[in-house]
Amino acid sequence: MVQIHELILRDAHQSMLATRLRTEDMLPIAEKLDEIGYFSMEVWGGATFDVPIRYLNQDPWERIRELKKAMPNTPMQMLERAMNIVAYWNFPDDIVKKFMYLAKKNGVDYFRIFDALNDLRNMKVPMKAAKEEGGHVQACLSYTISPVHTVDYYVKNFSQLEKMGADSLCIKDMAGMISPKRAYNIIKGVKDAGVKIPIDLHSHCTSGMTGMAYQSAVEAGVDVLDTAISPISGGTAAPPTESIVAALQGTKWDTGYDLEKLIEIRKYFLKIWDKYRHLHRFNALKVDPSVTLHQIPGGMLSNLIFQLEEQGAHGKYQEILDETARVRKELGYPPLVTPTSQVVGVQAVMNVLHGRYKVIPKETKDYCKGMYGRPPAEIDKKIMKKVLGSNWKDQVIDCRPADLLEPMWEKRKSELKSHDDVKITDENVMTYAIYPQVGLKFLQGKAQAEFTSDELPLPMDHKLTRGMVKQSFPEADDMYLETEPPEKRSGPAQIPTDFEVEVDGEPYEVKVTPQGGFLVAGAGDEADPPKDVEGGIKSNMQGTILKVKVNKGDKVKKGDVLATIEAMKMEQEINCEVDGEVKDVFVGEGDAVKSGDLLMQIL
Ligand code: CO
User: Fold this and answer.
1) How far, in Å, from the CA of 412 to the mean position of ligand 1?
2) Does 422 share its domain with 487?
3) C-alpha span between 449 and 210 (Å, rounded)
């Protein structure tokens, strides 16, 4: 018998609906889902912590409590990024342990734990903590293809994870590129190696061969398959639950699930799909077999293309693909999953736009230092020198990255206590510890929901609907310009300036500056800065100013850091190229800038 891990309440809408499914749209179907008898139900983790506090004004803790109550018979599962928990950077052990305790207490039963680099050292603490709380640990390896990621590599590491106390195992094929043969060989290999615990295959339909890979996995003895109820399946999401259940009916692998009940659940999600139509993206539905060649997850690819267009570098698509593959090889073949997908992808974009390793984000430096963990293969020494300088050897760490971190729980707790508009509970402290800025805003009641369930489907003139229309009909913006007199264009609210792009299913907010006549989001009523001045320092990318490190009148030297900018969730330094004095600063922290914008004047 094969069992199903159901993704409809987490990965499915993260892949297809920018993780925006609201709790009130999950609860009405929970009772029916609970009757199926699933192996487990994915309800938490990934981006479902970040997105609710950022965009939905919903408490993720409240969601897990309510879902657990509504589905008492089904194990609730979360996707946990080892030392990154549900964020994109490392946390100290005390936070990770406390998180596991709180997650279990609030309703998580199964913990799917993975590390982007498959560095088992990063998985030890969360695995042990989850077990101590009585959780089921599903230890997971990120799937990728490279000279080091052989069948043997997976068999060896899965065997090791069983020894480390895992209750089950999972192949996490986030890019949806596993072939039938590889799926078969890995699962057969694991079984032949004498591994006793169940193994699960998680994949996405991106390559078009996932259905075949699932069949091969079944034949090799897979115990669990990851699927999603059909209206939010296929494309960059997982294979459809009903189809897989039907395909196995009457075979020795029959799930035994009630197909009629599943079809009733399908009807509910057809309505949900329609209700959230403003989030539909053609790209998410497309089959993309090229993933098997370049190995870049579909969402990451569309994001890279989008970024390139933003930076005014049209027509560099192929170059970016080639460069991504090259950077990945130079950096020791990391699997392209959050957060390593950003490190590789953004470095590739920078290389194409500014010359190879001329612009190096902080995250690339951290990666090379070993701050994400041990890369699967050795990093090219020439690249190490370019990224970290000639003393690179002194900067590389040998220990588990979190060993360098100080405990943080008590510190965060007392920080939060200084805000008397926040209720102090362990869950709130954790939300704040994981997302200090966004979390605090949410806890203070200052977060705003983009929309509530009652407002759906959103009207045509809503900015989110316009964003969707603009993607399918780029000419829509021009039409708007022509048909609306200037006085009716009442500012950014009606203009599709904010877009969602995705990197392996993680939504990213990107601000776009429309061509012609509009107010620019963030520019407000203030006077526009000059376009060009003598000694002008310009931004070489689109992003948000994180910090301005100099003031008017400061003396600066070549190489000094003038400001830092966040682009694609990465931190970049803007360095001074001359010796001189800061005559003027045209931007402030939090300002959105685009490539070519004047930042300051140095003479
Ligand atoms: Co996935």
Assistant:
1) 31
2) no
3) 35
Do 113 and 80 form a contact (C-beta atoms < 8 A)?
yes
In this structure, the answer to whether residues 484 and 575 fall within a common structural domain is: yes
For residues 197 and 338, give the distance between their C-alpha atoms in angstroms, rounded to a whole number.
Answer: 27
Asked whether residue 129 is assigned to any structural domain, the reply reads no
Indicate the angle between helix axes 298-310 and 317-330, nearest 10 degrees. Answer: 120
Q: Which two tokens stand for residue 69?
A: 């109550």
Write the CATH number for 591. Answer: 2.40.50.100
Q: Report helix, strand or coil for 131.
A: helix
Two tokens at 296?
Answer: 């870049």
pTM, two decimal places: 0.83
530 with 435, same domain: the answer is no
CA distance 557 to 579: 4
Q: Which of 10, 21, 11 is nearest to 278 (CA)?
A: 21
Gap from CA of 477 to ligand 1 centroid (Å):
33
Q: Please check whether residue 278 is in contact with residue 457, taking contact to mean a CB–CB distance below 8 angstroms.
A: yes
CB hemisphere CA count around 78 (13 angstroms): 32
Number of domains observed in the structure of the chain: 2
What would the mean pLDDT of 206-210 be, rounded to a whole number? 93
- Co-location of 418 and 520 in the same domain: no
Tokens 């009442």, located at residue: 490
**Distance from residue 370's CA to the centre of ligand 1 (Å):** 25
In a domain, 511, yes or no: yes
Together in a domain, 433 and 484: no
Give the distance (Å) from ligand 1 centre to CA of residue 83.
Answer: 19
Lowest mean pLDDT among 187-201, 341-355, 465-479: 465-479
Rounded CA separation 258/583 (Å): 72
Band of residue 511 on the pLDDT scale cut at 50, 70, 90:
very low
Strands (E), 230-312: none
CB atoms within 10 A of CB 134: 8
Range of the structural domain that residue 521 is part of: 475-603
Ligand 1 mean position, distance from CA 172 (Å): 7
Residues 6 or more apart whose CB falls under 8 angstroms from that of 561 comprise 549, 573, 574, 575, 576
